[in-house]
What does this fold into?
Amino acid sequence: MRPVRDAARFASRYKRGTLALVLSGGYMLIVIGAHVFAEVGMRQSDQGLSAVMLILATLPLSWLVMMIPPETIPVSAHLLLLTAAGFVQASILWWLLRGPRVDVPPARER
It folds into this structure.
């Protein structure tokens, strides 16, 4: 539980830091879940459209990743690039939502 407390203490330094932490962290969990779903789907014999969830979860940056020709890199590299695009979007979400820094020092640990 210490990493959670450290993240909450870090988020308390910003005006809307807790909200930004919850939303960007939740988005990261969605991207990770979609990546795992796509990886499992790619390993199945019936591949279908398992990567579509990851593509939809990482829109709009997934459009840039999908412009890479499929012959140049393997499918697993495409999945990793889509996941990285989702992480970039989560960090942008954190940066936009956190608000200005608060001058009050964070609560001390007991």
